[in-house]
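Quiz preparation item.
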């Protein structure tokens, strides 16, 4: 039986090589990792080899793999109604929107559903432009907002460059004290100087031409860059001064990832539009959306909103959202994420940093952490790509699925990860950082 199951891994790899075209990849070098099933913070292949999933796949499986109540809700909805047009009224859709809006600040009652985070940001930008009558959207260089037209151009990293076909996008530098663009020495200096920089960009672009500032509350793929004190409140003040909308991208940071329902709950800031996806249902069925302030929603009471998707508010996705948010509330999963970060993950990573000179900085909260790796602590030169490749391969070989980006290991397990699983993972990081980074 075991041999037959291992044959399924080989079949899966062959079919993948022959027929699957992968995103963000050179197709000649496919991954050989097979995932057949999972539970909680662990996955395994057909042959039964088990891995700790400290990537949450793409930082989205917040509730963990195969949560039984979410799987049951999808099954029950499939037996009742598998799909319906978005123009119809559907109870599951209404229940999902109600639960999402209940976690937002006062004055957010409407939700526009999308298929994921990219088209959530796409439609938030559209709403901002239509509401304000302005065109430009400002976003940071260290950001990722998705792979659709406006979302990829709003993105700041390298993926923007071969895809710059959308208009009206301007980039600026956000705060990142470890690699400060502003010669800052303290979080307070970084915040003040980053805000001054943004103010000058706004003035130089012409405030009356700017529809929105689009920010990840905590930039995720760009490095889990926790904003310094006063920064988000300062951005809000600049937006208010110039009549600019503030869109907060909570696609990765939302629904428990930081140990809060929304990452911005930890800061003195109220956005105008909130985008979400990923953790809202842990990706069990593709879903995302925009939570719309009442003022912006009212713009479209008598005016047609020129946007829509065939699968907006898909019943299977809506059922999974309802079950996910109910389970997270009933089981205290958001609170657990906060505690496991403060009591287990954070202290363990700080201990690693004390032992390994290759670690330049550890930062994060909840189940949202980054280990920044450097070739030299004094110069902060990033660890080069070949070393990062060795580290990734060594972690997988030792049974841990990592999220690797540039010169960082992002430690982003599901919100349900246990203290025992964190304790299992840390010796793996420890061993790999001791050996693979040195090239031995």
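Solution:
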């Amino acid at each position: 039986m075991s041999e037959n199951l291992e044959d399924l891994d080989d079949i899966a790899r062959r079919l993948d090589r022959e027929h699957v075209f992968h995103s963000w990849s050179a197709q000649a070098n496919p991954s050989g990792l097979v995932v057949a099933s999972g539970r909680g913070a662990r996955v395994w292949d057909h042959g039964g080899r088990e891995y700790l999933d400290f990537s949450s796949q793409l930082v989205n499986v917040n509730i963990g793999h195969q949560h039984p109540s979410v799987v049951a809700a999808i099954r029950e909805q499939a037996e009742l109604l598998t799909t319906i047009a978005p123009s119809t009224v559907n109870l599951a859709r209404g229940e999902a929107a109600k639960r999402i809006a209940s976690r937002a600040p006062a004055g957010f009652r409407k939700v526009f559903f999308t298929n994921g985070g990219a088209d959530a940001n796409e439609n938030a930008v559209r709403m901002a432009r239509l509401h304000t009558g302005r065109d430009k959207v400002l976003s940071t260089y260290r950001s990722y907002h998705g792979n659709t037209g406006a979302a990829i151009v709003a993105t700041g990293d390298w993926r923007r460059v071969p895809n710059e076909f959308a208009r009206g996008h301007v980039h600026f530098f956000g705060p990142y004290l470890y690699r400060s663009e502003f010669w800052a020495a303290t979080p307070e200096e970084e915040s003040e100087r980053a805000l001054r920089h943004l103010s000058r960009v706004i003035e130089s672009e012409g405030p009356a031409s700017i529809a929105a500032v689009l920010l990840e509350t905590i930039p995720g793929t760009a490095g889990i860059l926790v904003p310094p004190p006063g920064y988000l409140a300062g951005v809000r003040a600049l937006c208010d001064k110039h009549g600019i909308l503030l869109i907060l991208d909570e696609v990765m940071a939302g629904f428990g990832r930081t140990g809060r329902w929304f990452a911005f709950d930890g800061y003195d800031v109220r956005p105008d539009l909130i985008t979400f996806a990923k953790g809202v249902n842990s990706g069990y069925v593709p879903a995302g959306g925009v939570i719309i302030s009442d003022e912006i929603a009212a713009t479209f009471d008598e005016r047609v909103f020129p946007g829509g998707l065939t699968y907006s508010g898909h019943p299977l996705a809506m059922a999974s959202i309802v079950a996910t948010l109910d389970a997270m509330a009933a089981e205290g999963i958001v609170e657990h994420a906060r505690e496991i970060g403060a009591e287990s993950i954070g202290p363990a990573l700080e201990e690693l940093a004390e032992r390994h000179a290759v670690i330049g900085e550890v930062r994060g909260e909840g189940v949202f952490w980054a280990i920044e790796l450097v070739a030299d602590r004094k110069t902060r030169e990033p660890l080069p790509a070949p070393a990062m490749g060795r580290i990734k391969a060594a972690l997988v070989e030792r049974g841990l699925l990592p999220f690797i980006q540039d010169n960082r290991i992002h430690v982003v397990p599901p919100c349900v990860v246990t203290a025992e699983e964190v304790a299992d993972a840390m010796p793996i990081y420890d061993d790999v950082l001791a050996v693979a980074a040195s090239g031995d």
